[in-house]
Amino acid sequence: MRFARFAVCLIALPLVAAVTYQSQIAEWRQKREARLRADGGWLTVTGLFWLHEGQNSFGADQKNDIVLPAGPAQAGVFELRSGKVRVTMDGNTRPLRPDNDDDVANAGRLKLYVIERSGRYGIRMKDPESQFRRGFHGLDYFPVRADYRVVAQFVADPRKVPIQNILGQTEPEDSPGYVVFTLEGRQFRLRPILDDPDTKDLFFVFRDLTSRKETYEAGRFLDAAPPQNGKVVLDFNKAYNPPCVFTPYATCPLPPQENRLAVRIEAGEKKYGH
């Protein structure tokens, strides 16, 4: 009898593990959607205005260089001088650092941030009453499959790799190496970049044979923890759409040639809106 109970336990263990994994992915999806819906999330990005050298007035009045959909008629002035941006509002002037969410200019309900892309400076606008946010209807996914969670071999090969964005600009990005993994009995490799200088997490921009029909044609993103003992876990069930899927005012990176995989990865987020 004891041995029968032991056998039942052995059979139940994989089932428990499968249920636990499904729950983990479900929780990840809930958090992913919550970040999109949140104040300041990508669904609130409703404008991108490129600055010219010198003064750029902004406000709701049509005479401004940057015309806002709400807020004061004359909200203030952004001044671009030799790669430095300052904002003047209500008689106060202060610098704004590019690509820093803590540096924001508020114009009514609108939040304005500086971004820099290949030496070009612009103002990104976020609106909590965005039409993208109001019209968001949730995300669609492939069914969760444990075989799309693979352990890859990490190969150290630090270099700068050229990454193009949807604007046609190309910038060199730091890449610590590449990963090699097996899927459907075939070997593939992907090269990550270090998207955030404050973290060693790996950021993959990839495209596969589901792109265009089932998934976003430009590709998808995947995050992974830093290598541990020469291994990296790639969980394609957590592959997700770039922000360009949700707003036309994002400047998404495109997958380098070596990250365009000749295999169908039927895992993760599907194309939004279809």
Topology:
Blueprint: H1 2-37, E1 45-50, E2 54-59, E3 66-67, E4 76-81, E5 84-89, E6 92-96, E7 105-107, E8 110-117, E9 120-126, H2 131-134, E10 149-164, E11 170-183, E12 186-190, E13 202-206, E14 220-224, E15 231-235
Parallel strand pairs: 2-3
Antiparallel strand pairs: 1-9, 2-4, 4-5, 5-6, 7-8, 8-9, 10-11, 10-15, 11-12, 13-14
Q: Could you characterize the architecture of this molecule?
A:
The protein has 274 residues and is α+β, with helices and mostly antiparallel strands. The chain has two helices and 15 strands. It has helices at residues 2-37, 131-134, and strands at residues 45-50, 54-59, 66-67, 76-81, 84-89, 92-96, 105-107, 110-117, 120-126, 149-164, 170-183, 186-190, 202-206, 220-224, 231-235. The strands form four sheets. It has a five-stranded mixed β-sheet, with no helix packed on it. Strands 1-9-8-7 form a four-stranded antiparallel β-sheet, with no helix packed on it. Strand 4 and strand 5 form a beta hairpin. The radius of gyration is 22 Å and the shape is globular.
